[in-house]
Task: structure prediction
Amino acid sequence: MSFNELGLADEIVRAVTEQGYNSPTPIQTQAIPAVLRGGDLLAGAQTGTGKTAGFTLPILQRLAARKPAGPGTPIRALILTPTRELAAQVEESVRVYGKYLKLRSAVIFGGVGINPQIDLLRKGVDILVATPGRLLDHMQQGTVNLNHVEILVLDEADRMLDMGFIRDIRRILAVLPQKRQNLLFSATFSDEIKALADGLLNSPATIEVARRNSTVEVIEQKIHPVDRNRKHPLLSHLIRTNDWSQVLVFTRTKHGANKLVEQLGKDGVPAMAIHGNKSQSARTKALAEFKDGSLRVLVATDIAARGIDIDQLPHVVNYDLPNVPEDYVHRIGRTGRAGATGEAVSLVCVDEHDMLKGIEKLIKRSLPREVVPGFEPDPNAIPQPIQLRSGDHRAGGRNRPPQHAKPAGAPKAAPAKSAQVKSAPMKPVQAKAAPAKTAAPKTAAVRHAPGHSLTGKPPAQNRGSGRGR
Ligand code: AMP
Result:
């Protein structure tokens, strides 16, 4: 299958081919014709599947095919993303794939000055990529006009809901023209996503591509059991002895990310952190240096790392295991992209055994354990409760553990039950493991979901409104 066969214009195929992509990925094969047909779309796909081109290419084609007759350049496509990084990367894709077309795009997100964005919007934009919070700011100031939006994309919709953006999204939906094409991309399908989709989408084509957890075989995964206070020397040791040229390290909290950068620095391993408390310029700088190879170690929290798009990133380290099992799959999906091989290493201490159990349940395999000589964990170590966040208690904040996912070592499980792991270092504690969320079906299929009505009525939801811009 070629991009030409999908019905894409020569200008678009040329731009895609210049990127070195000769054949469409499964999500592209299905999403591109569906979007070109003009109907709504509900797509289950994660980062790393090629989903961005899956919606960008047909949107470019549809917009280029019919330029509005009136004066000016009204916004005709609106793409909402959860994070600044993802917004920037999506807009970069729009520019790259649309380089031979006469369409204008812009990206707006918080954390940077609003005035340059106002200028850009005033000049006219066909395709606007935005994070919900900053877009609302513009709406309130009257500096953006969404009256001509023909196509709406909610990218990583599950993340947007997790981050508490639902109210912002509803306020944005309320000002859009009723008649439009809606595309919803989500890695997972919670009840909230289904409710959002039901209210938003009109008889959508439904596409589900294999989750990364069934395609991560190209990624070599292993667990290094280690004591909690020996993680950072172990990481320095691994980076040095294996001579890792580039490694993305995940920590659970922003504070943990800062602390690790400091500790690695003392070990002579320069690193930078990206997370929500860093200024946009610091985040951009760290990301740019990491991308161009001048920064060897980038430490990130899950949210900040969303949308980091670096081809052939060889090493991902889970310095802390994520409290949501799906995040493990997202994290390791940073490596082994587009057919490249990669390695994902997790440093797991006694506190995290339940989390590991949840992850192994989700990916349906047991991960090999490899104790690094000199870093053998204490077999008598007692699990301690895990701090899930760096003192950021906004309602609806991303790091809030979901109701069903009880973190390992949570006060209820310790200390009586924790004693059961005393002499079995890698055996999960007896407290119930976090159940994995329902995984999207593994088969790739296109079908038309019957009977979704465009009610525009917000379904009940109970999330907070943390803006997390
Ligand atoms: P995404 O899922 O949109 O984040 O894309 C994941 C990665 O796949 C990005 O690095 C893209 O540049 C790359 N990619 C997109 N389309 C293709 C394709 N058809 N073939 C190979 N790689 C692709």
